[in-house]
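[job 4471] stage=fold_predict status=RUNNING
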Amino acid sequence: MFGEKKVTIFQKKDKETWKKIKKALKDESIKHVSSGHYFGDSVSPNGIGGMVDPRDFAVGHQVDRDIYYIDVPESEEEQAIEAAKRHGLVPVVEEYKE
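[job 4471] inference complete, writing C-alpha cells
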C-alpha cells in the first residue's frame, strides 16, 4: 500500500457528488483515499479590483469553479468504483484543459 501508485476515480466540477462518493468509500472501508480540489477556471479576475468577478453577481453568490478529485490506490480501484455504484453514484473522470 505505502508508495503504491494512485489512480483518479473521480474528477469533476461537482462538489455534492464528490462529498457523497467520499462518504461511500469511507462507509465501505476503502483505505488510503486521497481527495481534494483545485481552482479550475481558465479565466480568473486580476489587476485592480481583481477580487470582484462580475460573473458572481448573476446568481447572487460566488460561483464554485473548483474541480474536485478522488484518488485511490491502483489495487483498490475496482473495489472503490463498485462501492460508489452500490451507493447509487457514478464516478466520473472529466479531462480539463486550458
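[job 4471] summary: The radius of gyration is 16 Å.
[job 4471] exit 0
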